[in-house]
Amino acid sequence: VWSTLKSGQVVPGYGHAVLRKTDPRYTAQREFALKHLPDNPLFKLVGQIYNIVPGILLEAGKAKNPWPNVDAHSGVLLTHYGLHQMQFYTVLFGVSRAFGVASQLIWDRALGAPLERPKSYSSEAIQKMFKDRS
Q1: Which end of the chain is more exposed for a tag (fewer CB within 10 A), N or C?
Q2: According to the model, what pLDDT value does residue 28 have?
Q3: Domain shared by 76 and 93, yes or no
């Protein structure tokens, strides 16, 4: 962990852009694993890492949030259930986001919610906004 930090890299699976505590998705996955695969060697390793890494990150002053995020645990479950190709993990994340957007669209249409039209700016308008601020 120290060599990763000293090389200027982050520790994968730790920290979150918004949360300042353990990611609840990590907690849910951990509870699931405790119940369904308590003897899995990778699960045990993730547990040991959880006991070590936050303290190191705090000591190093490298993280506003030294606690694990969902990525610290999801690989254990995906591997346990047969998905060994790590390059597909990001694809699964993207697909899950797409399902979320699609389900929200279905609810919006079912409930008759108005269409959302976020503002769009041209590159020139964005440049002007920043020039006006300086």
Answers
A1: C
A2: 96
A3: no
